[in-house]
Design goal:
By secondary structure, this protein is an alpha+beta fold. It has two domains: 49 residues, no CATH class; 134 residues, Beta-Lactamase. The protein has eight helices and five strands, in the order αααααββαβαββα. Strand 4 and strand 5 form a beta hairpin. The relative contact order is 0.09.
Amino acid sequence: MSDQTLIDTESAITEEQVVEYLRQHPDFFVKQPGLLADLRLPHESGQAISLVERQVSILRERNMDMRHRLSKLLDNARDNDRLFDKTKRLVLALLQGKTLEDTVDALMYSFGNDFKIHYTTLLIYGDPARLPNSAARVEPLSKAREHIAQILKSNKPLCGSFNAAEVAYLFPDHSSAVGSMALVPLIHGNSFGLLAIANRDPHYYASSMGTLFLSYIGEVLNRILPPHLES
Protein backbone atom coordinates (compact mmCIF):
# COMPACT_ATOMS: atom_id res chain seq x y z
CA MET A 1 0.00 0.00 0.00
CA SER A 2 1.50 3.34 -1.03
CA ASP A 3 1.59 6.53 1.08
CA GLN A 4 -0.57 8.27 -1.50
CA THR A 5 -3.29 5.65 -1.03
CA LEU A 6 -3.20 6.12 2.75
CA ILE A 7 -3.35 9.92 2.57
CA ASP A 8 -6.46 10.17 0.46
CA THR A 9 -8.11 13.54 0.96
CA GLU A 10 -11.37 12.40 -0.62
CA SER A 11 -12.11 9.65 1.94
CA ALA A 12 -11.70 9.21 5.69
CA ILE A 13 -8.61 7.37 6.85
CA THR A 14 -9.55 4.05 8.40
CA GLU A 15 -8.03 2.39 11.43
CA GLU A 16 -6.68 -0.40 9.22
CA GLN A 17 -4.85 2.15 7.08
CA VAL A 18 -3.27 3.71 10.14
CA VAL A 19 -2.14 0.29 11.36
CA GLU A 20 -0.71 -0.60 7.96
CA TYR A 21 1.09 2.73 7.71
CA LEU A 22 2.72 2.29 11.14
CA ARG A 23 3.83 -1.23 10.16
CA GLN A 24 5.50 0.16 7.05
CA HIS A 25 7.08 3.00 9.07
CA PRO A 26 8.22 1.50 12.41
CA ASP A 27 10.35 4.58 13.12
CA PHE A 28 7.37 6.96 12.86
CA PHE A 29 7.28 7.85 16.57
CA VAL A 30 11.06 8.22 16.62
CA LYS A 31 10.64 11.02 14.08
CA GLN A 32 7.56 12.42 15.87
CA PRO A 33 8.38 12.16 19.61
CA GLY A 34 5.97 14.95 20.50
CA LEU A 35 3.00 12.72 19.64
CA LEU A 36 3.89 10.27 22.39
CA ALA A 37 2.88 12.82 25.04
CA ASP A 38 -0.67 12.80 23.66
CA LEU A 39 -1.08 9.03 23.42
CA ARG A 40 -2.75 6.90 26.08
CA LEU A 41 -1.22 3.44 26.49
CA PRO A 42 -2.73 1.76 29.59
CA HIS A 43 -0.88 -1.15 31.12
CA GLU A 44 -2.62 -4.47 31.50
CA SER A 45 -3.17 -4.45 35.25
CA GLY A 46 -6.87 -5.15 35.59
CA GLN A 47 -8.94 -2.46 37.25
CA ALA A 48 -5.90 -1.12 39.10
CA ILE A 49 -3.85 1.69 37.58
CA SER A 50 -0.16 0.86 37.44
CA LEU A 51 2.39 3.24 38.93
CA VAL A 52 3.98 3.80 35.50
CA GLU A 53 0.63 4.67 33.96
CA ARG A 54 -0.10 7.11 36.79
CA GLN A 55 3.30 8.74 36.37
CA VAL A 56 2.75 9.08 32.64
CA SER A 57 -0.67 10.62 33.26
CA ILE A 58 0.80 13.19 35.67
CA LEU A 59 3.58 14.04 33.23
CA ARG A 60 1.04 14.46 30.45
CA GLU A 61 -1.05 16.83 32.58
CA ARG A 62 2.04 18.84 33.49
CA ASN A 63 3.02 18.96 29.84
CA MET A 64 -0.38 20.32 28.86
CA ASP A 65 -0.25 22.87 31.69
CA MET A 66 3.17 24.05 30.54
CA ARG A 67 1.88 24.36 26.98
CA HIS A 68 -1.00 26.55 28.17
CA ARG A 69 1.37 28.70 30.22
CA LEU A 70 3.77 29.08 27.32
CA SER A 71 0.91 30.00 24.99
CA LYS A 72 -0.29 32.63 27.46
CA LEU A 73 3.23 34.05 27.81
CA LEU A 74 3.54 34.29 24.04
CA ASP A 75 0.16 36.04 23.81
CA ASN A 76 1.22 38.51 26.51
CA ALA A 77 4.51 39.12 24.71
CA ARG A 78 2.69 39.89 21.47
CA ASP A 79 0.31 42.22 23.30
CA ASN A 80 3.24 44.01 24.94
CA ASP A 81 4.98 44.38 21.58
CA ARG A 82 1.87 45.98 20.09
CA LEU A 83 1.50 48.26 23.11
CA PHE A 84 5.15 49.29 22.83
CA ASP A 85 4.75 50.14 19.14
CA LYS A 86 1.66 52.26 19.80
CA THR A 87 3.32 54.01 22.71
CA LYS A 88 6.44 54.75 20.67
CA ARG A 89 4.36 56.29 17.88
CA LEU A 90 2.47 58.40 20.40
CA VAL A 91 5.61 59.70 22.13
CA LEU A 92 7.23 60.58 18.80
CA ALA A 93 4.08 62.41 17.72
CA LEU A 94 3.99 64.33 21.01
CA LEU A 95 7.64 65.32 20.62
CA GLN A 96 6.96 66.64 17.12
CA GLY A 97 4.20 68.97 18.31
CA LYS A 98 5.17 72.62 17.85
CA THR A 99 2.16 74.09 19.65
CA LEU A 100 -0.25 73.11 22.41
CA GLU A 101 -2.86 72.37 19.76
CA ASP A 102 -0.50 70.04 17.85
CA THR A 103 0.44 68.16 21.00
CA VAL A 104 -3.11 67.69 22.27
CA ASP A 105 -4.34 66.66 18.81
CA ALA A 106 -1.60 64.00 18.62
CA LEU A 107 -2.66 62.65 22.03
CA MET A 108 -6.36 62.55 21.15
CA TYR A 109 -5.74 60.94 17.77
CA SER A 110 -3.52 58.21 19.21
CA PHE A 111 -5.86 57.41 22.10
CA GLY A 112 -8.89 57.24 19.82
CA ASN A 113 -7.40 55.43 16.82
CA ASP A 114 -4.41 53.42 18.03
CA PHE A 115 -5.44 52.57 21.58
CA LYS A 116 -9.22 52.51 20.88
CA ILE A 117 -9.97 54.40 24.09
CA HIS A 118 -13.66 55.27 24.21
CA TYR A 119 -13.44 58.69 25.86
CA THR A 120 -10.54 60.99 26.69
CA THR A 121 -10.43 64.25 28.61
CA LEU A 122 -7.30 66.32 29.05
CA LEU A 123 -8.06 68.84 31.78
CA ILE A 124 -5.65 71.74 32.27
CA TYR A 125 -5.97 74.10 35.24
CA GLY A 126 -5.78 77.75 34.28
CA ASP A 127 -7.49 80.73 32.68
CA PRO A 128 -8.96 79.81 29.25
CA ALA A 129 -8.39 83.38 28.06
CA ARG A 130 -4.64 83.15 28.71
CA LEU A 131 -3.92 79.76 27.14
CA PRO A 132 -3.81 78.77 23.44
CA ASN A 133 -6.85 77.08 21.95
CA SER A 134 -6.71 73.29 21.74
CA ALA A 135 -8.79 70.17 22.30
CA ALA A 136 -7.75 70.28 25.96
CA ARG A 137 -10.29 71.53 28.45
CA VAL A 138 -9.04 74.52 30.44
CA GLU A 139 -10.68 75.47 33.74
CA PRO A 140 -9.55 77.17 36.97
CA LEU A 141 -8.27 74.81 39.64
CA SER A 142 -10.82 76.29 42.04
CA LYS A 143 -13.65 75.09 39.82
CA ALA A 144 -12.14 71.61 39.49
CA ARG A 145 -11.95 71.39 43.29
CA GLU A 146 -15.68 72.01 43.51
CA HIS A 147 -16.39 68.83 41.54
CA ILE A 148 -13.45 66.41 41.92
CA ALA A 149 -11.88 67.41 45.24
CA GLN A 150 -11.35 63.78 46.33
CA ILE A 151 -9.63 62.92 43.06
CA LEU A 152 -7.33 65.93 43.34
CA LYS A 153 -6.09 64.75 46.72
CA SER A 154 -4.19 61.91 45.05
CA ASN A 155 -0.90 62.40 43.24
CA LYS A 156 -1.00 58.85 41.90
CA PRO A 157 -2.98 57.26 39.03
CA LEU A 158 -6.46 56.06 39.94
CA CYS A 159 -8.77 53.64 38.16
CA GLY A 160 -12.15 52.00 38.70
CA SER A 161 -15.66 53.34 39.17
CA PHE A 162 -16.30 56.87 40.42
CA ASN A 163 -19.39 58.69 41.61
CA ALA A 164 -21.84 60.22 39.16
CA ALA A 165 -20.86 63.82 39.93
CA GLU A 166 -17.19 63.17 39.19
CA VAL A 167 -18.02 61.33 35.96
CA ALA A 168 -20.35 64.12 34.86
CA TYR A 169 -17.67 66.74 35.44
CA LEU A 170 -14.92 64.89 33.61
CA PHE A 171 -17.07 63.57 30.75
CA PRO A 172 -20.11 65.88 30.52
CA ASP A 173 -21.03 64.73 27.01
CA HIS A 174 -20.75 61.00 27.73
CA SER A 175 -21.44 60.66 31.46
CA SER A 176 -24.34 58.23 30.98
CA ALA A 177 -22.18 55.91 28.88
CA VAL A 178 -19.08 55.84 31.10
CA GLY A 179 -18.67 52.60 33.00
CA SER A 180 -15.16 52.95 34.43
CA MET A 181 -12.32 55.46 34.33
CA ALA A 182 -8.54 55.71 34.69
CA LEU A 183 -7.01 59.00 35.83
CA VAL A 184 -3.47 60.31 36.07
CA PRO A 185 -2.59 63.69 37.63
CA LEU A 186 -0.26 65.93 35.63
CA ILE A 187 2.41 67.50 37.81
CA HIS A 188 5.30 69.82 37.02
CA GLY A 189 6.34 71.21 40.38
CA ASN A 190 2.64 71.75 41.13
CA SER A 191 -0.39 69.97 39.73
CA PHE A 192 -1.34 71.58 36.42
CA GLY A 193 -3.86 69.14 34.98
CA LEU A 194 -5.49 65.73 34.83
CA LEU A 195 -5.58 63.10 32.09
CA ALA A 196 -8.77 61.04 32.21
CA ILE A 197 -9.78 58.09 30.01
CA ALA A 198 -13.00 56.12 30.19
CA ASN A 199 -14.56 52.91 28.90
CA ARG A 200 -18.18 51.88 28.56
CA ASP A 201 -17.45 48.60 30.36
CA PRO A 202 -17.81 49.04 34.17
CA HIS A 203 -15.06 46.47 34.74
CA TYR A 204 -12.60 47.55 32.03
CA TYR A 205 -10.61 49.86 34.29
CA ALA A 206 -10.70 47.77 37.44
CA SER A 207 -9.35 49.28 40.64
CA SER A 208 -6.64 46.60 40.75
CA MET A 209 -5.41 46.98 37.17
CA GLY A 210 -1.90 48.13 36.41
CA THR A 211 -1.39 51.79 35.53
CA LEU A 212 2.16 51.52 34.15
CA PHE A 213 1.22 52.63 30.63
CA LEU A 214 -0.90 55.56 31.78
CA SER A 215 1.76 56.65 34.28
CA TYR A 216 4.35 56.62 31.52
CA ILE A 217 2.21 58.77 29.21
CA GLY A 218 1.57 61.09 32.15
CA GLU A 219 5.33 61.47 32.74
CA VAL A 220 5.82 62.36 29.07
CA LEU A 221 3.05 64.97 29.22
CA ASN A 222 4.55 66.39 32.43
CA ARG A 223 7.62 67.33 30.42
CA ILE A 224 6.07 68.27 27.09
CA LEU A 225 3.02 70.35 28.08
CA PRO A 226 4.42 72.94 30.57
CA PRO A 227 6.50 74.89 27.99
CA HIS A 228 3.38 75.34 25.86
CA LEU A 229 1.41 76.53 28.87
CA GLU A 230 4.11 78.97 30.02
CA SER A 231 4.46 80.53 26.57
